[in-house]
Amino acid sequence: MTRRFARLRNIFLAVAAAGLVPALLSSQALAVPTRGVCSPSKVAFVASNALTSNSTANFVTVAESTVNFSQGGTKASCVIVHLWANTSGNSTGFYVRVTLDGVSAALPDSPEIARWGDVFLHGDEATFVIASVTPGAHKIQLQLRSSGGTQVRIGPYNLFVSYAP
Fold it and tell me: pTM higher than 0.70, yes or no?
């Protein structure tokens, strides 16, 4: 047995003894990507100077973030949402998510877009995909939350929604 193989075997045995193998394998199983092809060519947007703050782990809707649109076509297709925003906070995680008709539906779901060890203020961007949106009228909204206990803030921001005409 080579030294490298023996070292890897020992690491695996240590991880297995700690009971981490099921956790590692289950998180690996969750990493299945969503893939697709679509051609959204119409854009609706909101550009807002509104500020929204939150210091809880519960999502709140960002002020003035509603974007209404009518998905065209005869079958479901994707919608792509792009966010640019000034964000600020104090030693905490800053999470955003996009809702479609009041339901969290975008991928990635509630990514952490900022975390710093001290007070932070900077511009952030995030792009979300909603893989299958049926034709008809819909409403997109942006929500934010803190990892809890300290305040995070968003604004001003631009929110772009690309959809099928």
Answer: yes
Could you give the CA distance from residue 45 to residue 35 in angstroms, rounded to a whole number?
A: 25
From 79, 91, 65, 73, select the one nearest 131 (Cα to Cα).
79
* Strand intervals (E) in 20-118: 42-48, 52-54, 60-61, 67-71, 77-90, 93-100, 103-104, 112-115
In eight-state DSSP terms, residue 33 is: P
3-state secondary structure of 14: helix
For 26, half-sphere exposure in the C-beta direction (CA atoms, 13 angstrom radius) is 5
Number of Cβ within 10 Å of residue 118's Cβ equals: 7
Question: What count of residues does the chain have?
Answer: 165
CB 77 within 8 A of CB 71: yes
pLDDT digits over 67-90, tens only? 999 999 999 999 999 999 998 887
pLDDT in tens, 116-125: 566 667 788 8
d(CA 121, CA 46): 21
Instruction: Say how far apart CA 29 and CA 125 lie, in whole Å.
Output: 28
CA dihedral sign of residues 78, 130, 133, 137: negative
